[in-house]
Design brief:
The complex is a heterodimer of chains A (250) and B (233). Chain A is 38% helix and 25% strand. Chain B has a single domain, classed as MetI-like fold, CATH 1.10.3720. The chains are: A alpha/beta (250), B mainly alpha (233). At the A-B interface, strand 6 and helix 3 of A face helix 6 and helix 7 of B. The structure holds adenosine-5'-diphosphate (ADP) and magnesium ion (MG). The site of magnesium ion (MG) has 3 residues of chain A, from helix 1.
Chain lengths: 250, 233
C-alpha cells in the first residue's frame, strides 16, 4: 500500500531523517510516536513531496520510484494517492466547507460538479457537519475545521491518509470530536498513517505503532508490544514521560 | 480676488469631455497593468530564477524615476524609434500624425504595471504557503492552486492598495498634458492661456478632479466591500 524505504533528509547540516523505513498495509492504522523534533512532520512532508527527500524510495498504489528521480508528473500522481490532514487544518480560507471538500475532486481530479457535491456532502455528513456546508473556515471552531480537513482528505479516496498531529492545535474539549471521527474511519478500514501524542488513541486504534527518535525508527510493533513491553530504552523513556509510571500497562 | 465666474463655467463645460480621455488612459493602463503586473508579482513572489531579477530591475527602474521623466523619454524617443521600425517594415504611415494619446497609453501602462507588480507581490506573500500545500495535498497542480486558492486570496488582500493605485493613476494622467493629450488639465490650461485667466482654469481642474476622485473612490469602496464579503466571517 505505502512503503517508504531508507529515506534521508537534511536541512543544511541538520540530519533530520537518517534512513527511515515505514510500511503501511491496506487497512492499517499506523501511529507514529516520537518526541518533538524527532523528524515525524518531515517524514510525512517528504512522503507527500512537500519537502524533497535527499535519498530513499517510495512505493504507493502501483508507483514505485526513488524520491530523487520523481519528476513533476510522478509527484502529481503520487499526491493523488495520498492525502494529508494538517496540524493547523490549512483549510482553503476563500472556500466554504463544502467547496473545501469538492475542490480536490472538481479541480484536482476533473470530476463533474454534481458528483463532487454529492460526495462532498456525504463526507461532511460523515464527520458530523451536515449543517455547515456553506460556512467559511473563519466561522468554524477548530474542531469543526479539522473535521472539514478530514472530510477533504477522505473525499479524494486516497490509498492512505497522512495525519500530522491532527489534534495538537485544538482546545482540550474539542479533541474528542476529532478523535471520534478518526476512530470511525479506522473501523471502516481507512488506511492511515498518524502522528499523534494521544496515547490512548494509539493503544486503542492503532494496528501498528512506530517509535521514532532523532531521525531513526527505534522500534515498531503492535500497540500491545510497544506499550506493555517496549524493548528499547529510548522507547521506555518516551512512554514514561507521556504516560507516567502508573499508567504504564494497558 | 475677482473671479470671472462665467469664464469658469464655460471652461468647466469645455473641460468636461477631458474626463473621458482621463478615463480612457486609466482604463487602458489598468487593462495592461493588472494581468502583466499579476504575472510579474507571481514571478517575484515565487522568486523564479532570472525572471525575478529582470522583473526587479524593471520595477526599481520605473518606480525609482520621476514619471515626468518617463513621459519625456517615451514622448521624445518613441516616435523616432517607431518611424525607423515602420520604415524597416515598409509601412507607409507618418508616425508624427499619430494621436499622442497612444504615447500616454504606453507610458502609463509601463508605470502602472510596475506599481501593480509590487502590490500583487506583497499580496501574494500574505497568503501562507500552507494554502498551496493544502492544494497539492488534494491533487491540485501548482497552477491550479494559484488560480483557485492563492490568487483569489491575494486579490482580496490587494484590493485596498489596488484601489489606491487606481486613484493615483487617475491623478497622474493629468501629466498627459505634457504630451499634448487633450485631457482635463490640457483643455483647461489652454482656455486659461487664451484668456490669461489661469486661476479660474486651475480651479476648474481642481474641482473636476475632486469630483472624479471622490466618485471613483466611492465606487471602488463598494466593489471592495463586495469582494471581501467572505472575510467578514
Ligand atoms: N523547513 C525546515 N527548515 C529547516 N529545518 C527544519 C525544517 N523543518 C523541520 N526542520 C528541523 O527538522 C527537525 C525535525 O522537525 P520535525 O520534522 O518538525 O519534527 P517533529 O514533527 O517530530 O517534531 C527539527 O530540528 C526542525 O528544526
Ligand atoms: Mg511535527
Amino acid at each position: 500500500m505505502l512503503a517508504v524505504t531508507n529515506i534521508h533528509k537534511a536541512f543544511g547540516t541538520n540530519e533530520v531523517l537518517r534512513g527511515v523505513d515505514i510500511m503501511v498495509e491496506k487497512g492499517d492504522v499506523v501511529v507514529l510516536l516520537g518526541a518533538s523534533g524527532s523528524g515525524k512532520t518531515t517524514l510525512l512532508r517528504c512522503i507527500n513531496f512537500l519537502e524533497l527527500a535527499d535519498q530513499g524510495h517510495i512505493r504507493v498504489g502501483g508507483i514505485d520510484i526513488a524520491f530523487r528521480d520523481a519528476r513533476k508528473k510522478d509527484i502529481h500522481a503520487i499526491r493523488r494517492k495520498i492525502s494529508f490532514v494538517f496540524q493547523n487544518y490549512n483549510l482553503f480560507n476563500n472556500k466554504t466547507a463544502l467547496e473545501n471538500v469538492t475542490e480536490g475532486l472538481i479541480i484536482g481530479r476533473g470530476m463533474p460538479k454534481s458528483q463532487a457535491v454529492r460526495i462532498g456532502k456525504a463526507c461532511l455528513d460523515k464527520v458530523g457537519l451536515a449543517n455547515k456546508f456553506d460556512s467559511y473556515p473563519g466561522q468554524l471552531s477548530g474542531g469543526q475545521q479539522q473535521r472539514v480537513g478530514i472530510a477533504r482528505a477522505v473525499a479524494v479516496n486516497p490509498e492512505v491518509i497522512l495525519f500530522d498531529e491532527p489534534t495538537s492545535a485544538l482546545d482540550p474539549e474539542l479533541i474528542g470530536e476529532v478523535l471520534d471521527v478518526m476512530k470511525r474511519l479506522a473501523t471502516e478500514g481507512t488506511t492511515m498513517l498518524i502522528v499523534t501524542h494521544e496515547m490512548s488513541f494509539a493503544r486503542d486504534v492503532a494496528t501498528k505503532v512506530v517509535f521514532m527518535d532523532e531521525g531513526n525508527v527505534v522500534e515498531s510493533g503492535r500497540p500491545k508490544e510497544i506499550f506493555v513491553k517496549p524493548k528499547e530504552r529510548r522507547t521506555r523513556q518516551f512512554l514514561q514521560r507521556f504516560l507516567g509510571d502508573s499508567d504504564y500497562a494497558i | 480676488m475677482n473671479l470671472d465666474y462665467d469664464f469658469m463655467l464655460e471652461t468647466l463645460w469645455l473641460a468636461l469631455p477631458g474626463i473621458l480621455v482621463t478615463f480612457e488612459i486609466a482604463l487602458v493602463a489598468s487593462a495592461a497593468a493588472v494581468p502583466v503586473g499579476l504575472v510579474l508579482g507571481i514571478i517575484r513572489a515565487r522568486r523564479v530564477p532570472l525572471l525575478s531579477q529582470l522583473a526587479r530591475v524593471y520595477i526599481s527602474f520605473i518606480r525609482g524615476t520621476p514619471l515626468i521623466l518617463q513621459i519625456f523619454l517615451v514622448y521624445n524617443s518613441f516616435p523616432s524609434i517607431l518611424a525607423v521600425v515602420f520604415a524597416r517594415l515598409g509601412v507607409e504611415y507618418n508616425i508624427f500624425n499619430l494621436n499622442p494619446v497612444v504615447y500616454a497609453f504606453i507610458v502609463f501602462s509601463i508605470s502602472e504595471t510596475a506599481v501593480l507588480a509590487e502590490v500583487f507581490r506583497a499580496a501574494i506573500t500574505t497568503v501562507d504557503k500552507s494554502q498551496l500545500e493544502a492544494a497539492y495535498s488534494v491533487g491540485m497542480t501548482a497552477f491550479q492552486g494559484y488560480r483557485r486558492i492563492v490568487i483569489p486570496q491575494a486579490m482580496s488582500a490587494a484590493l485596498p492598495s489596488l484601489c489606491n493605485s487606481i486613484t493615483d493613476l487617475i491623478k497622474a494622467t493629468s501629466l498627459a498634458f505634457t504630451m499634448s493629450v487633450m485631457e482635463i488639465t490640457a483643455i483647461a490650461k489652454k482656455q486659461g492661456a487664451m484668456k490669461l485667466s489661469f486661476i479660474e482654469a486651475y480651479l476648474d481642474i481642481f474641482l473636476l478632479y475632486c469630483i472624479l476622485i471622490f466618485t471613483v473612490e466611492k465606487v471602488l469602496k463598494i466593489l471592495e466591500k463586495r469582494a471581501r464579503a467572505y472575510q467578514q466571517a
